[in-house]
Each structure stands twice: as C-alpha cells, then as structure tokens.
Amino acid sequence: MLLMRDGTSAVAASDLMKVHLVDVRSTLAGQGDLAGLQARKLVRILHEAAHSGLHDENLKYWRDKKRVREMLQEPPGRLLNELFPAIPLLSRTKLRASPRGALTRPIQSFLHYYESSGTTGDPVAAPKAVDDLIVNTVNIGEMWARVLKEGDSALILINGPFAPAGYQFEKVLEYLGLLSVRLWVDQVTGDYSRVLRIVRELGINTYVGAPSRLTELLQYALSRGEAPPAFGKLLLIAEQTGPSFVRHIETLTGATARVATFGSSETGTVAVTCEHGSLHTQPQSYLLEVHDEAGTRPVEEGRADSGELVVTTLDLPSRPLVRYRTGDLVEIANGLCPCGVRTPVLRTLGRQQDALKLARDGVRQEECEAVVWASQDARAPVVLNYMLVVKGDSVVCLVTADRDTTPAWEAELGERLDPLFAEHHVTVRTVSALPPLASMGAYVGWKLSRLVDLDDPALSGSLPPPLQEAVQQSLSQIARITAVPAMTT
Length: 489
Fold this sequence. Notes:
Elements: H1 10-28, H2 34-49, H3 65-71, H4 76-83, H5 92-97, H6 130-144, E1 153-157, H7 165-175, E2 179-183, H8 193-202, E3 206-209, H9 211-223, E4 233-236, H10 243-253, E5 256-259, E6 261-264, E7 268-273, E8 279-281, E9 286-292, E10 295-298, E11 305-313, E12 324-332, E13 345-351, E14 356-358, E15 361-363, H11 365-372, E16 383-391, E17 394-401, H12 407-417, E18 425-430, H13 441-444, H14 446-449, E19 451-453, H15 465-482
Parallel strand pairs: 1-2, 1-3, 3-4, 4-5, 16-19, 17-18
Antiparallel strand pairs: 6-7, 7-8, 8-13, 9-10, 9-11, 11-12, 12-13, 14-15, 16-17
Helix pairs in contact: 1-6, 2-4, 6-7, 9-10
C-alpha cells in the first residue's frame, strides 16, 4: 500500500510497515522487481510533489490524476530512463529559499517538527510524519540488525535538538528490541561525568553519535584519570569520517567503528552500514544519481562513479524532494560487497564547500587526517583531536593529545602537514581543550568545525543564533591561543 494525500490511519500505518518490510528484504537480497517498484513509487511521488509549492511549476502536469493512471501503465524503463531524467534538478538554494515549500500536508498533520541545522542557509523544515518514521526505521533497522545483536545496548549522544537523528535512532533501537539511552551534554560546561557514570553502570557497549563528540568524551575521561567507556561497537553518524579518522577512533577505543548512516534531515537516510562497514544505498526508497560537469547519471550496483549526490525521495509523500542536489560528494564502489546485500555501496567524500582553497590547491579533510593520524612510534603522543586555524600565510594546528607533548614533537608534526598548505607555513600548538567548534562538525561542517579560515568574511554569517554564539566563543578562544585577533561575526 502506498500512502497518498488522504492522510494516514493506524491500519494504513500497519499495512505500510508490512508491505515496506517485504520490499526492503527483497531489495537487499537482490530479488523482486526493483525497477517496477521504483517506477510505481515515482509516479505517485511526482503526483504528490506537484501539489507542493517547491515543485509546482516543474511538475504541474503531474497533478492530473488521469495522467497518473496513464503513467502507471508505462513500462518502468521509459519512466526511469526517459521521463524522469527530463525533470530539472532542484538546487539547495531553491529549497532553502522556501524552507517549508516541499510540504504537501498541513504542518499540524505531522507527528514531530524538526529542522535542518541551517549551517549553509536558512533551516529547512524536516517534520516527521508516521509514514516517514516507519519507512526510515525499517530501512535502518534491517541493516543495523546485521551489526547489533541480542544483548547489545546503546548510548545515543547527539547534541542536536532541532534535527531528527537522535529520535530516529531511538526508534530504530526500539525496532530491534535493544536498550538505548539518549543523553545530552551541555555545550558550555562540557561535563561528561553523568554520561560516563550511566554508561559504566548500565554496561552499555555501543556508541551512536558523531565521532568528534566521542573524542571529546574520551578526552574528558582521560583528563580526569577515569577509565574510558568500554564500547565494543561504534556507529558513527552526522560528520564526514574518512578511513584515517575511523582507524584513529578504533585505536583510541579498541572498538570496531563503522560509518553507520548517510543522509540528511531533508532527505532521510539514503545509505546504511552493513557488518563489513560498507554504506549500502536504499533503492527501495530513493532514486540516486551523481552529477558532475559531464552530466547526471543513475547510481547502479557494481558501476564505479563519483560526483555530487542527487536524491529523489520515493517514500516521503508528505515532503517529497525530486532530483535534489545535496552538495555532498560521493564515490560509488564497483563490484559487490561481501556481506551479500545487493544494493550499491557509496563512500562519502565530504561537502562541496568543505575544501579550503589555499593558492591553487584545495585541502580536504581526509588529506589532513591522513597526516595527523599516520602511524607513529607507539611511545609518541597520540593526537586526540585537532583544529586548523588559517590567517594570512600562517596555519596554526591546535591539537589535544593523550599525554604531554614536546616542542620537537610539535615541530615534526608541523613539517608533515606543511606540504598540504602550498605557500602557507604550519605551526602546531598543543592545548588542553579545543574550542567548542571542534565538536560541532555535525552542525557546521568540517570547514568551520575543524578548519577555521579567519580570512573568510562569511565565516559564520548564515548560522542561527545559538551556533553563532558558539562560533564567536570559539574565535575568541582561538585569538587567545594563537595571538590572532578574533573576527566579529
């Protein structure tokens, strides 16, 4: 059953869950008629989207119910390969200019109201309807069931009151019948003592949250002589986490780390991890494409590709997005994953705006972290976390470490980082704690949370007031540490 504009009853919700569960399991197994399923959902979602202010002009012909009935009779190949690619791409600018423009229902008909972070423009409405909640929970739950087992329990540590992630993951763990505790840490005090106590007393073995928040938790424990949490599984979300960062987190904790999900408040979860740590797309709920200068191409299993991810939501009739350019750069793997799931595997490469331009070169997160967390002498200090501050021709790398450092160690790390930054000179300074921005990558992106360009006049001008305050606090702290004057935001 596919929900349409008439709303959702409890019976319809129960039916949706049963039908969607069958679709998910057949899709993951590579069985069933996926193209037929996508085509049927696409026709209905285009009809829904045509009634939203965001898509009304581009999809006005899809409002006609007669056309919908006719399109349902078309071969799936024609719908997916001819009619669908002719629809114009939707820019992030257009979506942010109309934050509630995608909604097809009155706001009061949703269960919960959320918004995107608003770090790259005005926040976008991302309320949760019952059908949205059911579909996303089953999509994530069926994949996480390959990772989490009976007896596991999870700490959900997400400081994001506006976004739906914490609530959504809580529902996923309910779906799996596992204990979870969703906690919050005050951004000002950074006091993790209660979190550490609860994790210890309940014997929680799984962490769900941003990697920067986890490193801050570990640093808090180490600085007070407490044993770090005995996590065995780490499900990392919300921030760009490359291979070097994953290895670093595993070294610090002794746990197995996986990038758990990929998506956004606007789109929902488009890819979920398997037991091998591969992010598998969810084609039963999304049509995914990659876009670059050569054009826009569908994501297909086993065919390598890369570019900006373009998302069409097939299971969000209450707030559909059609051919939405996310701004996220991805790489599609070739070949099949050994886990047996028969959906394409993607790897995230960060946001388009997360490359810092220095001279003619762009410095990306993974390049920095490959140097910061390269294998070193086991007796040497280990960098727990870092922040790069750029001003003029200087780059100051602020680091926290698991033990005292020496000027010689700082100089050696600076020499290894120096080639990444063209004509800039890099110095390293060890600090007891990084500014608050370093733990806010999930909300402000890597370029602002870990790589602060003080020469950028638009450093934080688009941020909402709570983040704006945290940014200003961080900039003042950076000025004290580096002797670089703070920028007024």
